[in-house]
Amino acid sequence: MNYIQQRIDAERSYGTTLTKLKPPQDEEALTGLSRCFHVVCAESEASAKEHFARADNLHTTALDPLQRFANRYNRHIQNSKQTMKTQMNQFESLVKQLDQTKSAYQAKCKALVSIQPNYRLNVIKLGTRVFHERFGVEEWLKRFPEMTFNKDAITTWLKAEDQLPSVLHDLIGLNFIRQTGQDRFEKVITVTITQTSSANKGLSGFFKRGQHLEVFVKEMLVADKAYKDVVLQVDKMRTRIEEELLLHYEEMGKLELERIETLKQETLKPDKDVQIIVEQHRTGQFVPRPILYENYFYGTAHHQLFGVPLDEITRTEGNLVPQFISKGIAAIESGLSELDDKEKKHIWSLALPLNRVHAAREEINQRYPHIAIELLQSYDTLLIVSLIKLYLMELPDCLFTFELYEPSANYNVSLENQDKESRLTSISKLLTTLPSANYHVSRLLFSHFHGLIKNPTVSRSLAQTLSYILLRPQTESKVSTFERHPQRLIQDLIDHYPSIFTEEAIKAQEENSNRRSIIVGDSSSSSIDSFESSPKRRTRHLTGHLISSSSTLFEDPDEVTSESTMNSTPPNYSMKEDLAEELASLDSFFLDDD
User: Fold this and answer.
1) Is the N or C terminus of the chain more exposed, i.e. has fewer CB atoms within 10 Å?
2) What is the Cα–Cα distance from 226 to 221, expressed in whole angstroms?
């Protein structure tokens, strides 16, 4: 704009100078030479008018549109910067509050464990609600004011609390409610420690210790709730900032495209110009990092889904594949019948507004670990796809693991001159080095992709969309930005799924996982006592004689952990150092079958 303004000023100055040139009064006005001189002066006047016209034209067609665009651009930038600055300040303030509440919570837990080393947190699951200790359930039941009631009254109240009527059977089984008649029930009044101790003074010391422990437990639970609430606030602020940033980037892309079209009316592909600008100034891909609530007694996998490591989720659920992934893929495949062929092909390449995806993410996280297929089916198919992609992006380690990034690059180079069958066999062997949860999730996803897409052009587009989600380096660099081996690997998996995920490969992966478990067991056998006494393992579920209820889960996470930890937890070792040895052993496995 400065150059154009200077050019306009120069044109006008030159035109003004030309207009100041007046022809002298010549006595020989009628001579031929005089007439020629007047022609030259007339040309100067015409040239001055042309310079004035050029200056006006530059102002109208170039400077004025640019000034309007620049004002709007600066206004947008200032508003966005101010909004982001305000939100970042709020986020930093919440993070400080999070650190304080987490420290206070951990201090309360340590104080509780110091007076009761064998303390285990009672977890009571009633329908979709989770309570800690019996008095948590009793506080919830206080919302129902009647002490005696009939079945219809309590059932109506449970429905108002978004619970199934079958929860009544669990309340009876756990002795929170008892039946007094054919259709009459009453709440069970818990005898307080003070009342009991006054009735039997000989046990006063015992009850004082129990009362002291109850105070510590209640203080711990209060601190736990405060910590959990702040975690939710911080993560909510994080998602809001991400939404604002993506909206800002989208608006910036539109403004940049408009700027190029304003400056270069004859540009053939303005989108390419924007792409070049983005590639020159990019800082990295969008990789969200959730703020997780970490319970002192049982870790992160009980009250949240997004952002929790795959192996923790599968170990807690007791499944090879997280139920969210398996039920999500089932819901997607059932919803594909409502889409036409074109929509089916591109459903994994489309994107929804992030705020809509975050809203569904929050709903699933709040209901976890109860993920009903009916809830997923209530979402449209594209939203479920976006949720699964967001879930995979929020994993602390990408699905194919950071450790597999470099080996896959080396494989890509070494396999260029191999025939198709050898190349696919080598890829199959490489994937068997994945942890069990990662391998089985990959198998489910690519089975779906292979059945969905038959066109190589569409598979290339899908591979480009999914490559960074499924396989990326731990630290992005300018070199990794332009590497294409993840995309080629994903496309091979889509196009040749049956040849890669074979029965032999599945068996090899299981043997490889078992071999890792044996190594971990031998190296950690001396620390079993410390493992059993670890605070994060001190948890138990309150059980009782329950009437069967499909909406209630009464399982002991310690039992799940003890049965599956040795078989599903990969050791912490260097993939680069051990990969060649493992693949060599896998080679022998595949060759034996031949």
Assistant:
1) C
2) 9
If one compares 545 and 386, the residue with the highest pLDDT of the two is 386
- Residues 252-293: pLDDT tens digits? 888 877 777 766 655 556 667 767 777 777 777 888 999 999
How would you classify residue 438: left for phi > 0, otherwise alpha for psi between -120 and 50, otherwise beta?
alpha
Q: Strand (E) positions, 75-147?
A: 121-126, 129-132
Tokens found for residue 418: 């191999």
CA angle, 410 then 416 then 420, to 5°:
115
Average pLDDT, integer, range 331-344: 85
pLDDT in tens, 445-488: 999 999 887 777 778 888 888 999 999 998 887 777 778 888 88
Buried b (16+ CB within 10 A) or exposed e, 5-40: eeebeebbebbeebeeeeeeeeeeeeeeeeeebeee
Check if the beta carbon of residue 153 is closer than 8 Å to that of residue 186.
Answer: no
Q: Under 8 Å CB-to-CB from 83, ≥6 apart: which residues?
A: 244
Q: CA 212 from chain center: how many Å?
A: 42
Helix (H), strand (E), coil (C) string for 63-84: HHHHHHHHHHHHHHHHHHHHHH
Closest CA to 171 of 146, 145, 143, 134: 134
